[in-house]
């Protein structure tokens, strides 16, 4: 089983889409009793992809932090750790750190991933019949690192393509906003209405998949 997991993990480097990495991840973790996945970046904290029922069908960053405060533990450790939920339902109960999870109870492992700048991402896996042996923990650690490395590469490529898809006007507006100008000032400089400015900015956020203009500016300036 462990050898098969290693062979599956090797396929991640050849994945052309995030969906392929997700499928490979599921193939690796299912034999070990895991059926829920949450992969997120740390700075900024952003859920990159999720699978399985955690609290609701759709989970966002605020929900996760509120309902699973144990996630804050990752900033204080440099090794994987196990958690267990006390409560009968996924959306109820308290979470606590454990040395070894119990069978039949929603439990999981948190696998922090470190880069040159420190903690960069983390993989959270959950299930009710998980294998917490040291051998499996080692395999999952390798999995987390490969997911982080190749997912971030695919996301960076996707972001670069999205930036290239911005119009000249959209780039012009974002450039002015990045210099500290207000939308009113930008509208005066370009001779167009504030509503038009807001429409362009909203399209930029949609293309880049961000919720705030500040985040969109940060992404664009990073390329």
Question: Please, could you describe this protein's structure?
Answer:
Helix 1 (2-10) runs parallel beside helix 4 and helix 2 packs antiparallel against helix 4 (134-164). This protein has two domains: 2-155, 2-Layer Sandwich (Beta-Lactamase), CATH 3.30.450.40; 165-221, Orthogonal Bundle (Arc Repressor Mutant, subunit A). The radius of gyration is 21 Å and the shape is elongated. The chain has eight helices and six strands. The N and C termini lie far apart (42 Å). It has helices at 2-10, 18-29, 61-67, 134-164, 168-178, 183-190, 194-208, 213-221; strands at residues 36-41, 46-51, 81-86, 94-98, 107-115, 118-127. It is 46% helix and 19% strand. With 223 residues, it is of the alpha+beta class. This is HTH luxR-type domain-containing protein. Residues 159-223 form the HTH luxR-type domain. It comes from Rosenbergiella gaditana. InterPro entries: Sig_transdc_resp-reg_C-effctor, TF_LuxR_autoind-bd_dom, TF_LuxR_autoind-bd_dom_sf, Tscrpt_reg_LuxR_C, WH-like_DNA-bd_sf.
Offer a concise description of the structure.
This protein has 223 residues and is an alpha+beta fold.
Overall body shape? elongated
What would the CATH topology of the largest domain be?
A: Beta-Lactamase
- The CATH superfamily of the largest domain turns out to be GAF domain
> How many helical elements?
8
| Structural domains: how many | 2
Mean pLDDT: 85
Which range does the strand content fall in?
15-25%
Strand segment tally: 6
Q: What structural category do the secondary elements indicate? A: alpha+beta
Low-confidence stretches: none
> Roughly how many Å apart are the termini?
42 Å
* Proportion of helical residues: 40-55%
Strand order of the largest sheet: 2-1-6-5-3-4
Largest sheet: 6 strands, antiparallel
Protein name: HTH luxR-type domain-containing protein
Pfam family, one: Autoind_bind
Domain HTH luxR-type: 159-223
Keywords: DNA-binding, Transcription, Transcription regulation
